[in-house]
Amino acid sequence: MVRRLAWMKLNKHKSKELAQKIVYYLIIFFGFIFRKLNYATTVQLAAWLGDLFFNVVKIRRQLVLQNLAMVFPARREKEIRQLARQVYRNQAENLLDMLRLSSMRTSEDASKLLTIDTTEFLAKTTHVKKGAVLVSAHFSNWELLARSIGLLVTPLHVVVKRLRNSFVDQKINQWRAECGNHVIYKNAAFREGIRMLQKGGVLSFLGDQSDPKGTFFMDFLGRRTSVFVGPAYIALKAEVPLFVVMGYRLGNGGYKAELQEIDMNGLQATKQDAEELVRRYTAVVERYIYQYPAEWFWFHDRWKRVG
Predict the structure, then answer these.
(1) Which of 89, 99, 183, 252 could form a disulfide with 50 if both were Cys (CB 3.0 to 4.6 A apart)?
(2) CATH architecture entry for 106-295
(3) Greater model confidence, 251 or 247
(4) CA dist 62 to 57, 91, 94, 228, Å?
(5) What's the whole-model pTM score?
């Protein structure tokens, strides 16, 4: 009986590993194919895929519609559906672009896709050999944004969550790191982050995520939810500036990113002040989501932890 259970467990593990490898090789294959596509073809394919997942597959469609209706109560049902459809198309385009990221290898490649004014950021960080915390969101193409900043401005230390598929996790992190950026897993963010900031590095977070521990709750897009305080506390602890960076599509294949420093005057590395800093940079993130709602990743069950 024990041997049979051990065999079943081993067989289940092998099946899971095989499924993960299949997904991995599909990503490699489609990445090779999609790198051959031009912008117009990519947009057309993304629109087709987005409509397929919205109309037929319906992945998380009810959740997306529910989230949009909650945040934009004044919009009619038809408007919400149109917005949701564009959300699916944008995320399909993000997926195709991510599979093609390896084709962006130089600062010249990045400058063709991204416009960004870094004057203030460089004056307060790289030019004075000081680190900084960079906060963004699951907004527009966040992977392309991080890669572009790494090539155009300075290498980033990107805080990420480990994926369940170890093969895909390794491949995506390889793409993230192949042009100078460094990957830090979320569970090591505080220790490694402080060390990198003290050396003048730039630590990058996506700050719109829910905190599974539920230690801090505030309104986000008009509804109470848990918010991750880590980026704020690390910036205060390391005594470095914190910037919000948000990018959005220009409609011609390019993107524009905007940097805004968050006022930290008078704030200390305390729980109360870290929460205040979170409120300040979250307000900036919210402003972009309200202005460009189709760019945000509405597929998260963002308000599942309400305190």
Answers:
(1) 89
(2) 3-Layer(aba) Sandwich (3.40)
(3) 247
(4) 12, 16, 21, 25
(5) 0.91
